[in-house]
Write a structure and sequence with these properties.
CATH topology: Jelly Rolls
Shape: globular
CATH architecture: Sandwich
Helix content: under 10%
CATH superfamily: Jelly Rolls
Structural class: mainly beta
Strand order of the largest sheet: 1-3-4-11-6-9-12
Number of helices: 1
Strand content: 35-45%
Radius of gyration: 18 Å
Amino acid sequence: MEQRYATSPEHVPGMDTAELRGRYLVQDLFAADSINAVYTHHDRVVLVGISPATKPLTLGTYPEIRSEYFFAHREGGIVNVGGAGSITVDGDEFVLAKGACLYIGRGAQAVSFASLDDEGENGPAAFYLVSAPAHTTYPTTLVAPGQGTVRELGDPLTSNRRTLNQYIHENGVKSCQIVMGVTTLHPGSMWNTMPAHTHDRRMEAYLYFDLPPQARVIHIMGEPTETRHLVVGNREAIISPSWSVHSGVGSESYSFVWAMAGENQSFDDMDGFSIADMR
């Protein structure tokens, strides 16, 4: 488990590109037949990529979280960004198509992952897990693609027409902290959020996916008056501190998993900034 320590806005102006990428960009989460984890000290969130390409994989625990098993004191939201797969939680099997979401509550002990259609259009399953500490237990719950709360946002005239599917949130699947969903840009739209915003009460993590090999997203981060950018490829994640804007524009259309943890679960609790005021 790689550790990423928390940063403050004062750190950003002095960072070069390599340090920005080293602190906020998460690459190589998905490697065949591997489980890779990154612990960020922003709200003690853990990002995990699980890739059961040719064999099932079992999620173990890590010394860094000091627990007998991974979900002993944690909850998690999982989105499948690859081909069809299954997750077995304490003997109960859940089948996830691409884009489906599974919430796992505190106390789950035996959790394993498998691919079901390795030769399909989307290849083997690729599970993206975002986990945060939890103080109580909510039931493990599966949501199929398109079965969450669907919101149509943006306008093609401003290149940000997008479909947002909320899975884990205050009016959907119940959790202690995690809020999670998937946003898909419509063809011809490139901006995922503009005007940009912060929510100083919650950190956020983005996983960009469905990007062609040569396409990239320019992810904007930092304080609104002191922005920086990160160039992000397919299945790469961004750690976005609560004080940072998080907006991006792609060279082609794409999708992304967004997940938050922190003070509240209100999706619309945002502090917006006009692009004219950004620097």
